[in-house]
């Protein structure tokens, strides 16, 4: 993949994950090429890659749109995340390979972002991704980071941190700190339990927001 395609892919992926392009939004090659200052070919190639990630649907004669997921799909995604990320946390703790100083710095940065702005959800989302990715890499499983990157991206189409209330945000941050303590203690059972609870909390936040939106839209 050339540099231009990579640039377009990274930009469009970020805009999808932060909600600039929402579920069901059309992604038209011409306007996107104009916006990004490139030709249509890199946009087309980037959209194909995003389709492979599960973030974009490609329909013949209709083009591309941001994928929408049914509630049952999201339930399956969060179940898979809890299973795989719980395993990653346990392995990271047992192996003692995680950079705990880096994890603590990411915790500090997330909490500072939340305290510093009214809506820092996009920044927190990016820092949270770095936190989880560091744990995945520390599991010393070559396949796990790439598998989880795709699964987490699909879940983030619902922009989890946008949907947290104040108590849920505080709980998520506290669980990050507890994860670091469990990993530092090299207690795999503890780390797996905290990660599983952490992801079940995220699942609840998405479910709650979805149910509230359905209620508001019901005549």
From TrEMBL:
The residue ranges of the HTH gntR-type domain are 2-69
**CDD domains xref list:** WHTH_GntR
Which Gene3D superfamilies does the UniProt record give? Answer: GntR ligand-binding domain-like (1.20.120.530), Winged helix-like DNA-binding domain superfamily/Winged helix DNA-binding domain (1.10.10.10)
* Record InterPro entries: GntR_C, TF_FadR/GntR_C, Tscrpt_reg_HTH_GntR, WH-like_DNA-bd_sf, WH_DNA-bd_sf
Keyword DNA-binding listed: yes
| GO molecular function list | DNA binding; DNA-binding transcription factor activity
What are the record keywords, sorted? DNA-binding, Transcription, Transcription regulation
Which Pfam families does the record cross-reference, listed alphabetically?
FCD (PF07729), GntR (PF00392)
What is the recorded name of this protein?
GntR family transcriptional regulator
Query: What is the organism of origin for this protein?
Result: Solicola gregarius
């Amino acid at each position: 993949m050339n540099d231009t395609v990579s640039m377009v892919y990274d930009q469009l992926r970020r805009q999808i994950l932060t909600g600039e392009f929402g579920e069901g939004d059309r992604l038209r090659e011409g306007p996107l090429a104009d916006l990004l200052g490139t030709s249509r070919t890199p946009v087309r190639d980037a959209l194909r890659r995003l389709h492979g990630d599960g973030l974009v649907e490609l329909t013949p004669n209709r083009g591309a749109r941001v994928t929408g997921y049914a509630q049952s799909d999201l339930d399956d995604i969060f179940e898979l995340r809890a299973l795989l990320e719980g395993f990653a946390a346990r392995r990271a703790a047992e192996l003692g390979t995680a950079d705990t100083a880096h994890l603590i710095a990411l915790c500090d940065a997330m909490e500072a972002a939340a305290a510093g702005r009214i809506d820092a959800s996009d920044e927190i989302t990016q820092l949270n991704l770095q936190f989880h990715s560091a744990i995945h890499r520390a599991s010393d499983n070559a396949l796990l980071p790439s598998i989880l990157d795709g699964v987490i991206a699909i879940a983030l189409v619902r922009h989890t941190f946008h949907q947290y209330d104040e108590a849920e945000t505080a709980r998520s941050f506290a669980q990050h700190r507890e994860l670091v303590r469990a990993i530092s203690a090299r207690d795999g059972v503890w780390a797996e339990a905290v990660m599983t609870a952490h992801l079940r909390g995220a699942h609840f936040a998405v479910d709650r927001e979805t149910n509230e939106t359905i209620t508001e839209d019901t005549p």
